[in-house]
From TrEMBL:
Domain Flagellar hook-associated protein FlgK helical: 93-324
InterPro entries reported in the protein's UniProt record: Flg_bb/hook_C_dom, FlgK, FlgK_D2-like, FlgK_helical
Pfam families in alphabetical order: Flg_bbr_C (PF06429), flgK_1st_1 (PF21158), FlgK_D1 (PF22638)
NCBIfam families, A to Z: flgK_ends
Keyword ATP-binding: no
Protein family membership: Belongs to the flagella basal body rod proteins family.
Highest rank taxon of the organism: Bacteria
Gene: flgK
Protein name per UniProt: Flagellar hook-associated protein 1
Length: 675
């Protein structure tokens, strides 16, 4: 009877434990990361008797945690990817909206500027049209500035977010290390701390929302965590810390460092996954490219407009003034070169733009080893050759592998110490630095610098076209033009014997034939000629092209002169209008693009990338849900199942109690027999 009583008691204990486990499951149904538990029973050690082995009841030998490391790993990976894409999507959708907006975008401002220019060109002497053009110039400058400011704010916000996320990562890593320590101690004492393991797993999952982590289980039931390409974040109960600091090469681009004891390692480029990975990937693939592309367009636009204005004359007959600020202003050129924070020298280089049509939308890395300079284009990591001229100041020119000039030069008063490095940013600040500086509308150079006319009493039908300046300094030097054309202009007469124009040209001037013949005029056709001139005093060179059509007669004359009174002339204004469709950004001809096309390309690229990221983010949510469902199918608490278990174990408990009741009745009967 004592054996029967013991068996009943063991059944009570086993059923009670099972009921407790079931109740624990039910109460934690909404606990994040909880894995359902199951009691494991086995028979007690049987006792030998003359009749054989007789059972001694049951016992609970384990409370098993129903979980799979593989399924948890899938959830972590899917969580990391989903949060990375979500962070990327949140940032790039802002950028996409900003670039394509009809208020903040550049395309509407470009259209308004060129529309105002065409209106002003229709009546070049009217003040109203000129004033309207100045207003639109200020508007497009403001549009570039505003767009840059918004990009800069986004960059600053990313820096702040990286710092906040690093602090959260450090906090969660410390929690994982504490759990490791507690779990290892519990395991060493012979226990299985299921709830602690669940809490640690949930902490690691939360960590994967912030940054991609690899979890490696150890023999002592601890888990080591690694980030990036294998950098240790948690090893046992020891943690490393993340810190976010201004970049060594660019203080505006914060970098992530891993601090382990006295060792500090920059791991920005190794980070992937989680919100940190998404922010860094967005900055590297979209934000930096937008900075540079927008700056490239702004620099090319300002330079092209200024140069064309400089090749015309204003209402007072003076050379055209700049509408926008000088792209190579000394206060700007110094900001285009960032010295590495670890530099030991104090050299302060300047970066001057030499040809905006050759500029690319990229930053560059320049290093000096004590003997030679090396450079690399950061957008595609291509090696760039560096040519050094001068002996103080030194001028550095840059060309890619095909020999293509990069459109800028760097000047240094002295050579830096060996090991110093610099980040070159020819276009990054272009949109921030563009500024409308012309305030007087009568200084807009709408008139061409030269005019032509046929002599009134010519006998033939020869007609001369207006000369077009195809090459010359900007701004032109009025005294050079006066030296070329003289007070009364250059008179060219038709010589029927040689089919050519003859006349007295000043020193440094030559007249040549371009088409259809290169040796003389072809009567009855449109002949293109070129007047080249190099001023002996200044050394400035000019090239004018003009046409002569019809059939001139012997002795017919034509005059080329300076357009000093071209108040109603709009030839240079029309040349300015032609810039709207001219390929000037990123090259000339078939290799370049117009201002609108270049900006449209930027908007299209960001829009396409936004759509891709949005689709990938939606897919990642589906993958994450599938991973969570797979994990929950094993580890999740099913209330219906637990309710059934509760009834089942309650019945077991009642049956065990009945066994005890029988043992008690038998004992009472036995005691009664001796009374």
């Amino acid at each position: 009877m004592s054996d029967l009583l013991s068996i009943g008691l063991s059944g009570l204990r086993s059923s009670q434990t099972s009921l407790t486990v079931t109740g624990h499951n039910i109460t934690n149904v909404n606990t994040p990361g909880y894995s359902r538990q199951q009691s494991v029973q086995q028979t007690g050690i049987p006792q030998y008797s003359g009749a054989g082995y007789i059972g001694s009841g049951s016992q609970v030998v384990d409370v098993r945690r129903l979980a799979s490391d593989f399924l948890f790993s899938q959830v972590r990976t899917a969580t990391s990817q989903a949060n990375e894409l979500n962070a990327f999507q949140g940032q790039i959708e802002q950028l996409d909206s900003l670039l394509s907006d009809t208020t903040t975008g550049i395309s509407p401002a470009l259209q308004k500027f060129f529309a105002a220019l065409q209106t002003a060109a229709a009546n070049p002497s009217a003040t109203e049209g000129r004033e309207a053009l100045l207003a639109e110039a200020q508007g497009i400058s403001k549009s570039f500035n505003t767009l840059y400011d918004q990009l800069d704010k986004q960059n600053s916000l990313i820096n702040q977010q990286l710092g906040s996320l690093a602090n959260q990562v450090n906090s969660l890593a410390s929690s994982v290390a504490s759990y490791n320590d507690a779990i290892a101690k519990a395991k060493a004492a012979g226990g299985q701390p299921n709830d602690l393991i669940d809490a640690r797993e949930e902490t690691i999952r939360k960590l994967s929302e912030l940054i991609g982590v690899q979890a490696v289980p150890q023999d002592d039931n601890t888990v080591n965590l690694f980030i990036g390409t294998g950098q240790p974040l948690v090893v046992g109960n020891t943690t490393s810390a993340l810190q976010v600091v201004p970049g060594t090469s660019d203080p505006t681009r914060f970098q992530v460092q891993l601090v382990s004891g006295s060792s500090v390692q920059t791991i920005t480029n190794q980070i992937s996954g989680g919100q940190m990975g998404g922010l860094i990937a967005y900055r590297d693939t979209a934000l930096d490219a937008s900075y540079n592309k927008l700056g490239q367009i702004a620099l090319t636009f300002a330079d092209a407009v200024n140069k064309q204005l400089g090749q015309g004359l204003d209402l007072a007959g003076n050379a055209g003034s700049k509408l926008f600020g000088d792209i190579n202003d000394p206060t700007i050129t110094a900001l285009r070169v960032l010295a590495q924070s670890t530099n030991t020298g104090t050299v302060s280089p300047n970066l001057n733009i030499t040809d905006t049509s050759k500029l690319g939308a990229s930053d560059y890395r320049l290093e000096y080893d004590g003997s030679n300079f090396t450079a690399r284009r950061l957008s595609d990591n291509a090696a760039i050759s560096v040519t050094v001229t001068g002996t103080g100041p030194y001028t550095l020119s840059f060309a890619d592998g095909s020999g293509a000039d990069q459109g800028f030069q760097v000047t240094m008063n002295s050579l830096p110490p060996a090991g110093d490095g610099f980040t070159l940013q020819p276009t990054r600040r272009g949109a921030a630095d563009i500024d409308t500086v012309l305030t007087k509308a009568d200084q807009l150079a709408f008139a061409g610098t030269a005019r032509s006319e046929a002599t009134t009493n010519n006998r033939g039908s020869g007609a001369i076209g207006q000369p077009k300046l195809t090459n010359g300094p900007s701004p032109v030097v009025v005294s050079d033009l006066q030296n070329l054309f003289g007070a009364n202009g250059l008179t060219l007469s038709f010589d029927a014997a040689t089919n050519s124009l003859t006349g007295t040209l000043p020193p440094g001037a030559t007249l040549s034939y371009l088409s259809p013949s290169t040796t003389g005029l072809t009567s009855g056709q449109t002949n293109t000629m070129r007047l080249d001139y190099t001023d002996p005093g200044t050394g400035n060179s000019y090239s004018y092209e003009f046409t002569l059509s019809g059939v001139p007669q012997a002795g017919d004359s034509f005059t080329l002169g300076m357009n000093s009174k071209g108040i109603s002339d709009n030839s240079n204004a029309l040349a300015l209008s032609a810039l709207q469709s001219k390929a000037t950004v990123g090259g000339t001809g078939s290799t370049g693009a117009s201002f609108n096309d270049a900006y449209g390309g930027l908007v299209e690229r960001i829009g396409t990338l936004t759509a891709q990221v949005r689709n990938n983010a939606d897919a990642s949510i589906t993958v994450l849900k599938q991973a969570q469902d797979s994990r929950d199918s094993l580890s999740g608490v099913n209330l219906d199942e637990e309710a059934a278990n509760l009834i089942q174990f309650q019945q077991y408990y009642s049956a065990s109690a009945q066994v005890i009741q029988v043992a008690r009745s038998l004992f009472d009967t036995l005691i009664g027999a001796f009374r």
